[in-house]
Design goal:
This protein folds into two domains: 72 residues, no CATH class; 46 residues. Helix 2 links the parallel strand 1 and strand 2. The protein is built from six helices and two strands; from the N terminus they run αβαβαααα. The longest helix has 21 residues. The protein has a two-stranded parallel sheet.
């Protein structure tokens, strides 16, 4: 898992490069919401032979279909974020530095993972 922080006013697709570095294992599918709908993202993923499942923005004239059965798996990621936000310190971001905040996000993620393994 990789976590990183962008300024609050930054759009999702601008933070895309932070999480898709080359040092991560190569994914087979990219499931993302409309915030990641950008031609450069689709092009970069097609060059790496990664299937993209990103719904198009309503203003786009050229429509691209989405496999809804596969896109439903994105719900698991959203539920994970919801469980991370149950940790009050993650949801409210009381930490002054990005390093300490990201450290606690990692601790909360490990806690969820260990809880998942024990069930």
């Amino acid at each position: 898992m990789r976590t990183d922080i962008t300024p609050g006013q930054t759009s999702d697709y601008l933070g895309f490069d932070l999480v898709m570095d080359d040092n991560l294992p190569e994914p087979r599918v990219l499931l993302a919401d409309r915030g990641y709908d950008a031609d450069r993202i689709r092009k970069a993923m097609s060059e790496r032979d990664i299937l993209t499942q990103i719904p198009m923005r309503k203003t786009c004239k050229m429509r691209v279909g989405v496999d809804h059965a596969l896109y439903r798996l994105r719900n698991m990621v959203e539920r994970c974020f919801n469980k991370l936000k149950n940790a009050r310190r993650v949801a409210t971001r009381y930490d002054k530095t990005a390093e300490s905040y990201l450290g606690f996000v990692d601790v909360a993620s490990i806690r969820l993972w260990v809880r998942h393994l024990s069930t």
